[in-house]
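Try this one yourself first.
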C-alpha cells in the first residue's frame, strides 16, 4: 500500500497572534486623539441638471468605538441618469458607513472592504429590481482615520490626496480607461487629460455582483491635510492649483474656493470636495493610559447590530 504524498501542505495561520497584533494597534490608537477640522462643499456644476455626487462623514464620540474603528469620511460620484446616479451614491455611502461600524471584524482593512462590498451588492440588486435604475452605479473613495493611521478604500476615479509639508500627493489610483493606458505606455499624462474617454471608468460599485476594492494604509502626521473629491474637481483644476489653495486656506475656505475654481474653469460636471486637516496628534502619557485601561479596558467585545445607535457620533 502506497502512501499518497500528493497532498497540498499549507502553513497554519496563527489567529491568536494576528488578534494580539490588532489589539496592540487598537490599544495604541486609544491613547491618541486626533484634533481635526473639516470643510466640505458639493455643487451641481454649470451643465448637469442634478447632482449625483455625495459626501458624508461619521465621527464617533464613544471612546471604544473611536479607538476600534476610527472616524469615517467618504465621497461618491454616481452614474446612471434619471436620478439613478444620485440614488446610487447616497445608497453607497450610507450602506458603507453602517456596514463598517456594525462589522464585528476588528481588522480595519478587511472591514472597509466588506463595507464597500455590501454597498456594491445593494446597488447591484436595486438596479436589477427596478427598470428605471438599470445600469446605475457609483465611484467611492473612503478614508478612515484611527490613531496615527489612515486607511483608504478606493473604487472608481474619485480621489484621495494628502498635503504634507507643502507637497500634494495623490494617494489613490484611478480605475479608469485612460489611467490604464498611461500605465501601459499607450498614452502620455497630457494625452490622457485631453482624451474624450477620460471619464470612462473600469471599476464601480453596482456594476457587477462583486467588486475589487483597493485598500491601503498610510501613516498620519500632525499637519497632514486629506482631500477627498469627485472627478468634477480634478477634471477642471490642476494638482498645482489644488495644492496652492489647500496650503493657504482653512478646510472650509479651501473647499469653497476649490469648487469655485472648478466652476470658473467650466463646471462641466458635479463637483464635490471634502477636506480633513489633522491639526494635532494628542497623546496620553503611558501612565495615564495604563490607568485608564485598568478601569476601562479596551473591549474587543461582541459587537451588536445597533452599534451606530449606541454611538453618540453624528451622521451628517
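Now uncover the answer:
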Amino acid at each position: 500500500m502506497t502512501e499518497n504524498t500528493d497532498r497540498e501542505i499549507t502553513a497554519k495561520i496563527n489567529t491568536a497572534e494576528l488578534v494580539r497584533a490588532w489589539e496592540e494597534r487598537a490599544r495604541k490608537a486609544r491613547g491618541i486623539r486626533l484634533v481635526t477640522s473639516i470643510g466640505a462643499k458639493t455643487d451641481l456644476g454649470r451643465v448637469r441638471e442634478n447632482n449625483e455626487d455625495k459626501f458624508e462623514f461619521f465621527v464617533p464620540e464613544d471612546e471604544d468605538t473611536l479607538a476600534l474603528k476610527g472616524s469615517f469620511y467618504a465621497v461618491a460620484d454616481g452614474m446612471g441618469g434619471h436620478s439613478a446616479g444620485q440614488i446610487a451614491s447616497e445608497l453607497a455611502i450610507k450602506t458603507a458607513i453602517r456596514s463598517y461600524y456594525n462589522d464585528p471584524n476588528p481588522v480595519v482593512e478587511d472591514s472597509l472592504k466588506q463595507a464597500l462590498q455590501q454597498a456594491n451588492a445593494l446597488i447591484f440588486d436595486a438596479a436589477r429590481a427596478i427598470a428605471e435604475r438599470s445600469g446605475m452605479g457609483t465611484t467611492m473613495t473612503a478614508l478612515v482615520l484611527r490613531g496615527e493611521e489612515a486607511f483608504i478604500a478606493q473604487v472608481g476615479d474619485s480621489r484621495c490626496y494628502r498635503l504634507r509639508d507643502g507637497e500634494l500627493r495623490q494617494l489613490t489610483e484611478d480605475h479608469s480607461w485612460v489611467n490604464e493606458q498611461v500605465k501601459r505606455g499607450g498614452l502620455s499624462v497630457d494625452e490622457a487629460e485631453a482624451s474624450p474617454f477620460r471619464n470612462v471608468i473600469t471599476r464601480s460599485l453596482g456594476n457587477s455582483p462583486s467588486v475589487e476594492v483597493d485598500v491601503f494604509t498610510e501613516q498620519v502626521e500632525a499637519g497632514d491635510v486629506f482631500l477627498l473629491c469627485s472627478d468634477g474637481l480634478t477634471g477642471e483644476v490642476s494638482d498645482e492649483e489644488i495644492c496652492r489653495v489647500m496650503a493657504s486656506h482653512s478646510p472650509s475656505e479651501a473647499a469653497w474656493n476649490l469648487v469655485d475654481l472648478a466652476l470658473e474653469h467650466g463646471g462641466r460636471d458635479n463637483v464635490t470636495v471634502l477636506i480633513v486637516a489633522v491639526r494635532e496628534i494628542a497623546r496620553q502619557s503611558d501612565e495615564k493610559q495604563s490607568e485608564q485601561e485598568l478601569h476601562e479596558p479596551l473591549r474587543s467585545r461582541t459587537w451588536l447590530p445597533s452599534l451606530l445607535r449606541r454611538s453618540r457620533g453624528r451622521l451628517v
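Discussion: The first helix runs from residue 15 to 30. The two ends are 69 Å apart (CA to CA).
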